[in-house]
Amino acid sequence: MPALTEPRWLDADQQRSWRALLRGSAKLFEDLNHDLERDSGLSLNEYEVLVRLSEADGRTMRMSALAADLVHSRSRLTHTIRRMESDGLVERSTCAMDRRGVNCTMTLAGFARLEAAAPHHVESVRERLVDRITPAQMRELGVIMAVLAEDAGSGESAPDGRDADARSERIAS
């Protein structure tokens, strides 16, 4: 990024929107995390790991791919996986194709925990987000977040229905 000579300050409307994003997203994720921990003993980060693994072939992903998919640092993911491994939810193993890589596999106990947590989590997502905004706002939110995720290299497509068949098999995240 080139050096700035003159700051491009946010106008009053942009500042209000930016601050609303910060407050709203922090509150939403705090509430969702609280609900998940209360209902299932899983943190939102742990739940998201289990969701990604449940969608992967053989319920296994390389740790580096999992970190990229979740937009987590490798060290943060390693800490989360270590805790989940001690709880019997996942197992780590050396990647057969590249001995330097590490795979993470969801255990049967991890899948059972995800299945038990998912209905409560989906209800929490509905209560705290989906049912509080209009369907049009929800679609627009998805489009906006897809634009932001593209910059993060997520590879996710916009929520326009193109991947609806693939998503229909997934447990809601």
UniProtKB/TrEMBL annotation:
PANTHER family: MARR FAMILY REGULATORY PROTEIN (PTHR33164:SF99), TRANSCRIPTIONAL REGULATOR, MARR FAMILY (PTHR33164). GO terms for molecular function: DNA-binding transcription factor activity. It comes from Georgenia muralis. Residues 159-173 have a biased composition (Basic and acidic residues). Residues 14-150 form the HTH marR-type domain. SUPFAM superfamilies: Winged helix' DNA-binding domain. SMART domains: HTH_MARR. Residues 152-173 are annotated as: Disordered. PROSITE patterns: HTH_MARR_2 (PS50995). Coiled coil: none annotated. Gene3D superfamilies: Winged helix-like DNA-binding domain superfamily/Winged helix DNA-binding domain. One of its GO terms (biological process) is response to stress. This is MarR family transcriptional regulator.
